[in-house]
Amino acid sequence: MWDACAACHEACMEITARLRMPGPGDEGQIGALLDCAELCRLTASFVGRDSPLHAMAGALCAESCQRAARDCERLDDPATRRVADICRRTADHCRRIAAGAVAVM
Questions:
Q1: pTM above 0.70, yes or no
Q2: Are the beta carbons of 86 and 11 closer than 8 angstroms?
Q3: In angstroms, rounded to a whole number, what is the distance separating the alpha carbons of residues 24 and 13?
Q4: Beta-carbon contacts of residue 55 (< 8 Å; ≥ 6 apart)
């Protein structure tokens, strides 16, 4: 669990740093990526400590990861496509958490 969320958090933060360089129209993607990164961190924490809210955190994280993936694809470059793939995989994992299909540590 932590590995998927940690990888997604790291990828979102790395691409966000690159997108903060001057360029028109990147503000929406930055917000979605920051949301995704923070929700990945939160979800991993909730699951790791067996919070009764971990399923809700997983659902929110899955939605945020999907939004970040869609926004990354709009930029259409190899680095953002890679992040989009990571976000999608993490969204799938978080949906399983939300559905109770992933055991809490």
A1: yes
A2: yes
A3: 19
A4: 97, 98, 99, 100
